[in-house]
Amino acid sequence: MTRPHTRSLLLASALFLPAAPALADEAAPATQTAPAEITVTARYRNETLQQVPIAITAVSGASLNDRALHNLQDLSATVPSVDFRNGSSNKDRTIFIRGVGTISTSPGVEPSVSTVLDGVVLTRSGQSTLDVGEVERIEVLRGPQGTLFGKNASAGVISIVTKGPSARTGGYAEATATTDQEYRAKAGITGAIADGVNARIDGLYTNFRGNVDNLNTGHKVNGFERYGARAKIEANPTPDLKLLLQADYLQSRDTAVGVYTSSAQTAYPTGTVTDNAALSGFLSSVGITPSASNRRVSNNFDTDVRDKNAGVGLTADWSLPKGYTLTSITAYRNWKNHQHQDFDGISAVSAAIPQGEDYGDVSSRQISQELRLTSPKGKFIDYVVGAYYLNAKTDERYQRQITRVVSGANVATTGVAYYGVTNNNYALFGEANFNFTKNFRALAGYRSVWDELSYYHNRTSTNDPANAGTGAVTGIQGYHSSTGRTSTRGDAYRFGLQLDLGDHAQTYVTYSRGYKGPAYNVFFNMLGRDEISLSPETSKSWEAGIKGSALNRQITYSLAAYTTDFNNFQANFSDLVAGAIATRLINAGTANSRGIEVDLGLHPIPGLSFDTSVAYNDAKVLHFNCPVGAASSCNIDGKPLPYAPKWKLYENVTYRFGVAQGWDLELQSDVTLKGATQYQLTQTPSSIQPAYVLLNASVALLGQDNGWQVRAYVKNIANQHYSNLLGNGAIAGTSRLVPRDDVRYGGILLRKTF
User: What is the pLDDT of residue 665?
Assistant: First the structure.
């Protein structure tokens, strides 16, 4: 985008100010001045958003649905403290909060941001980046959350709460179609199926052909197909016991692919530009012009990534005498991932450009049990205490075949690796409020964590005649076999003070310690140097905030300031493995994330709302531990962490008003502004995404009583090209992954509730 164009959009977006977080409920009816308060469960209790002494964003399911936001990647555009790293497979995708996340495909490391689905922690990031379906709300808890959520929450938590069953019979049906051939259908029904037994079932199907052209196969790629269902049964066998049985299944197929933005690479810190003449010549020969807006590839075959994500769980709430509640959550989850990818990303083989074909299979399963006791409120001390156990096991098979021209003949080298990890996690936890007065209280929480982590790895490869099995040309190392085991105990805690400023405002200050367990760098080309265990990652954070409302919630606001230090930061750093660039998981050193987050909402007249969220975040490396033999510069102290823009803003304006008897019209527009973002820890200049602006809008006709909704929307009105992954290509050059809304498109949604 040109600078004048950017300035005009910034000026236009300023007309929306002031505003507040894109949270809240569905657009309010024209007779309602301000939205009702949102109830969240961030501390395992039902509390309003403004009662919780935590920096938290809560986005309602209705708001997500109305704005065509279907997964956590979409959510990251509307919550400034959240960012998202795309990948060619779900196992490669990562969520960041306040500039901190874990980039790795190794099954031996946990994400720094914990994703929780209906109270169940998901151990692998690939389980959480799929379609969320029909949800009640999504809560984003910013900063360390180790005391209650515990598992891999050193940077924050994203809690997904799906829709529950109701005794009242009802349901919905929904269909969406877009101008670039995405089709989406959802339906669900709920109601009583017996006395004291309620049920709900939701189904989903969506298909998008893609927005990238594979010139070699003639197909559209970078698309997806997803379908699945979720069922819940709630029963009250006794007046004091509530049982909730739930099961879900989601299957997906993705054809995500990287496209070349340049045939050159720029080194850091020298700025030396190295162009790959062979790659440049090939791209030119097939009609591809590498650029920031390129959406063309020429691969040997279309990428094929398939996921099966399923789970079953039983939640029991037992009301005890004197107002106590005992809760048990028992869950099993299973995730399978298969990928077939063109490693080199081009459809040619020569002495200068070898061809690579990758196959990978992941099978991951987890069993967890949580038991907690919640005290009644109203006494000097109210608390939650509990115990947690998780057993998680992941097995992978990865195969890479490299074909290159040697003395005029094609020579193929194949490597196959079998590897996996087993993790047992045990914890005791508790958090309490000490109510000194009606308006002043202290909070204290603690979690003791035990981790047992083990891995195995076995790799074999065919003979490499040119390099005697070293793999320096083929990108495949020779034989390797090893196992390892480690166990640690760690602590997470939080202390704070909270003061109510009247009935509609509060201020708080907290000190928190986050903890993420040990790790192993287990991957296809694992070497002897990777056999050591990584130390646990810890975080220490100060946070102060104020939040509240005024004028009968016509004004809502929150402000949080924070600083968080990370020690033994677990991060990936680019390295040379078998002659190919690979990411190597290490204890990278120390890092800091500090900033200010502001949420403001105005609801001046019935039906009109202005909502804005702004985040300033300075997340950077304090000291980097340079690995021996690193392929990239280690002079990155003081440089930004990946996926940590300094500025990010989201604004939404909605106006709903009556147009005919029984019908309302809703006008909605939102804008996301994101500052320049470095996507690689190696600080390569070519992996910086320049600042950009995304502008969306919709118009909807809403039935006041009949449940109909017809909504037309436009995404990326300004046709802004951008990427949520930039980096080195597999063989050379620079490539990007193309987002769903990389170009302007429109859609129409039709929904009927009953």
Answer: 97
